[in-house]
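Please check this one:

***
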Amino acid sequence: MATAPVSPSLSELRDRLTDLMPHDHRRLRRRIEGAHKIRDQEALRGVVAEISADITAAHERVTRRRERLPEITYPEELPVTARREDLMTAIRDNQVVIVAGETGSGKTTQLPKMCLELGRGILGSIGHTQPRRLAARTVAERVAAELDTEVGGAVGYQVRFTERAGEDTLVKQMTDGILLAEIQRDRLLRRYDTLIIDEAHERSLNIDFILGYVKQILPKRPDLKVIITSATIDPERFSRHFDDAPIVEVSGRTYPVEVRYRPLVDDSDELEDVERDQITAIGDAVDELCAEGPGDILVFLSGEREIRDTAEALEQRKPARTEVLPLYARLSSAEQQRVFQRHSTRRIVLATNVAETSLTVPGIKYVIDPGTARISRYSYRTRVQRLPIEAISQASANQRKGRCGRESEGICIRLYSERDFLDRQEFTDPEILRTNLASVILRMTSLGLGDVASFPFVEPPDRRQITDGVNLLHELGALEQPTKGGKQDNQRLTRIGSKLAQLPIDPRLARMIVEAETNGCVHETMVIAAGLSIQDPRERPAEHQQAADQQHARFANKQSDFLAYLNLWQYLREQRGELSGSRFRRMCREEYLNYLRVREWQDLYGQLRQMVNSLDISINDQPADEDRIHQSLLAGLLSHIGLKDTERKSGANRRSTSEYLGARGAKFAIFPGSALFKKQPQWVMAAELVETSKLWARTVAKVEPAWIERLAGHLVKRHYSEPHWEKDKGAVMAYERVTLYGVPLVSGRKVNYGRIEPELCRELFIRHALVEGDWDTRHEFFHTNRRLLAEVEELEQRARRRDIVVDDDTLHDFYDQRVGAEVVSARHFDTWWKKVRRERPDLLTFPRSLLFNETSAGVTDTDYPDFWQQGRHRLRLSYQFEPGSDADGVTVHVPLAVLNQLGPGGFDWQIPGLREELVTSLLKTLPKQWRREFVPVPDHAKAVLARLRPHEEPLLEALSNELRRMTGVTVPPEAWDPQRVPDHLRMTFRVVDGDGDGGEERVLAEGKDLEELAERLRPRLRAEISAAAETIERHGLREWDFGKLPGTFERQRNGQVVKAYPALVDEGDSVGIRAFDTAAEQREQQRRGARRLVLLNLPSPAKFLRRQLTNSAKLVFGRSPHGDQERLFEDCIACAADVLIEQAGGVPSDQEAFDRVVQRVRAGLNETSAHVVSAVERILTIQQRVESEVEGTRSLSADAAEDIRTQLSNLVYPGFVTDAGWWRLADLRRYLSAVSYRLQKVAHHPARDRDLMDRIRSVERRYQEMLDSVGEGEPVGERLWSVGWMIEELRVSYFAQELGTPRSISEKRIHREMDKLQP
């Protein structure tokens, strides 16, 4: 029995596909083609029935859409209505039409209606894009109202997080970002039969991408109509892009505008140019316009700071009944709406370029245009988005001018010349030429659109921009590393890149979320990423900045601005759960939080959560570790890391704001609004780097370099330096330096160098281990060879020659020809030699004849310079070859005037021509135990000199360090004996009076010791300094009437710069100003002189102190070493003054500081002096008691008694109170009490007392030698002075342990401290 044919047939179904919506047509056609493959008639019959039903439903959908077409009317007053027929004809007859018209022409609201009238929107929706969400919503509402339909029906809209459009919507308003997102699902945009790209003149990145993409698909969609609307800014460019598409121009509703040019620099004056600053010029323009009559004024400014400064100035000079209002994007919605509210007074609106095209401010009759704006621009050098202030284009200037011709005739004052206007570029660069293209490249790669360089953009981006975008994606790990010679159009997404492309946020932020999955902190990272994607919800109104800062400070984290987002998020979540909707909104307003941005933040987080779930990324439900959160964030910010520039903070030129070294040599600073601004960590990452007045890092956090190195493994560069042989490890080690975009992550990390450069390691192993013998091994050949070398070296000693033994290169070549190529370390050698020695045991043993050879060396005549450069001083050199004479060798001619500015450092290096001989002699002076390690000495001297960098450190220190690196032998500093080198190798210093550059000079003194010469000639040097500083030296001063006292004084004298250190000096009943030759003397004299001047300006508290004395105190003071009570009081008062001066900020250097110190000392001198006197009374009481005990202790030896009396005289003497200082007085009592304890113990342990005394005297002798070395008149340094106190503490620890010491003390510790003080 025959099977009945399937009805309807597949061909009949295909015929029914006409007049369907494109996406239905394509979907059903593919189903019909698939049905051809079905052989089972019953199954085919079922499929055909389903397809037939779907075709019927699709036809019904078209019918329903036709029936929903509303009645269309056009407002007669709109200019676009007059061109309706022309526009509809152009749209009907062309696939692409350009509509150019100014704001107010009606093109935005009427073009969708014209398309409906032409029958568009039935077989596909009319997609109408807007640059901003607000515009998409308001245009949809306006068009729906004119068509008498509800929003969401025939007319709908879709913006981020909100969609009010259905399946039967005819006209769909949307942001350009929504259309871009739909491209990923609908490659040919079959959902639409018409696209209207509005405000194309803005040339945003999204708009340019849409225009390029649409051009690509037009040949595949001949049914698609494209209408591009633009202000009258270069519509011809759009026409050329779409193969000379027709342009229909529609005039706007405008009135004439008079342009007046009022440049900041007025050159009309014949005598001189008159220059004004911008704020003054704006004020003058306001005055001029106010005189023209009523009407609001719109002033364009480049940023918020300029708006605030200008507003402050205008408030002081504005006419009566005038209101000054700011307008910029970061203002809250309520503050922005004030501009649009009805008002009866004149308004001056200060706005950024947001008011050029984005917003139309009503009532504007006048415009003031300074001609500048902050324009976002990507920097190729720093790879950051900058916001520099630039001159606007002619097109932007004309847009600004047009703001005042909307409602009546207007006036536009330009604060620049007409010539300046004509010289400016015609149009503003589109965003694609000013931004990073990473998002575009990522999107294009995910869509398979090929190379961005060949994409049909209206204006193709610069190749550098494309490269930067690709590099950023490589940084994020989104693109596969290109093969050598590979092309960018072959780029493929990695697994990470595929995930990034599916997240609707900046690639950097998306990378953070992907990394967060590994770290178990996806929730926290999404909260932060969503917060960084929107405008900051924390508002800071200009008039409530302090209150807003206090509210927002609750969420701050001292280590991270990112965590402030988490804290704020948690707070909002808690409040939202406790408060009603209206109370929550009121709370946001009161706490300076923008409710709409909070909602946007929450919505974006929800959207991210949905997308993350679709990517199978698990979201944590437990709080995550903060370090893991920051590591996740760091994955997206690897080129936004920074290392604090510590070098910049040192020295006298210290500046307040720390700078960080960023990627590719960029220098940035933490933004002052950051929680990390006051206490700045060593390493930071930043969410963004924005250049305004300088390069600022916004939203920063502390990071660790180890995190960076781990995450940037595919980006870091590893540099290796100083490969060297290490005997202990038996291998060549090197210092690794790891950098990321030039920022050093790791410096000086020691690593095994064998795997990095095996050839060099083999070379170093042979040279150091085998040739130089720097190796601990039991191999027999090695010890045999060392013995042979020692014998030959001994022969050299006998022959007093240095040309017998072969050089190291000969020995190296011997080993190089025999040792296996794979040997790079001791471990490798052991493995190799274990196999080879079985067959050739004598392979590496030296033949005796190998060790004999001759060598020669020489120097160039450039090794003997005429001058020696020491700092800024150029000193003449002279040479003598007179063995035995004092000046044999090199002589440095030192002018007397610069003697105090020179130190011995650097002269130890000698001139280049004698340096090798000097190093050779120095090596020869080493004790035998060290010297034998560097034989042959000349070769070692030559070798070490080749590696040294002269003058970077003292010669002996450099030699020790380099010899250690070369040989592994450490030469202690005390092993060197430079006094034993021949005299001609030690420089002679000749101090001269007169011109040191070749003129007449008189020799004052000469010798080998520069410091000894300086001490010997100090009186003459002081006279020289006094002569140079006679203009500042004064005497008999009793008040501070001489201005600020400089720290240094320099004056040219006899062709040399004389440098002096002025200070106040104590003259008894007055003070003077004298110049000293060292800063140390200056500090000491300034302290004494300032104290004297302070006390001269205050009444003496001596009378007050006398009234306070008890009879017992009078008896004690009568036996004081001061001789009488008045001198003791003077000592105590001086001590009290020192304390109060220190509390007032230290020694003053100007009158203001001096007055402040006097005021502080006046307030506390009596009381503090009384405290000091009381403390001194207790000290003297103990001292006098101890003296009596010394006399009464018969078991005390004469030696011990003398030791105690010496100690007492060192502790208590005329002036001891001031010398010790207030903080040491308590210690003095303890030291004196310790003597008493000693006296109690000496009878029982005399031998122990003698032993401890001898040990202390050993320390004291060295300390006294150091005190004696201080030049006459020079102050004893604070650190050397403190050694004396350490010795007193040592006495306490030895003789009176019961009293205890503030810190651990020992002879060894004291000697170590003195070691630091000795050169």
Notes: The chain is about 45% helix and 15% strand. The radius of gyration is 44 Å. Residues 1151-1192 form the longest helix (42 residues). The mean pLDDT is 84.
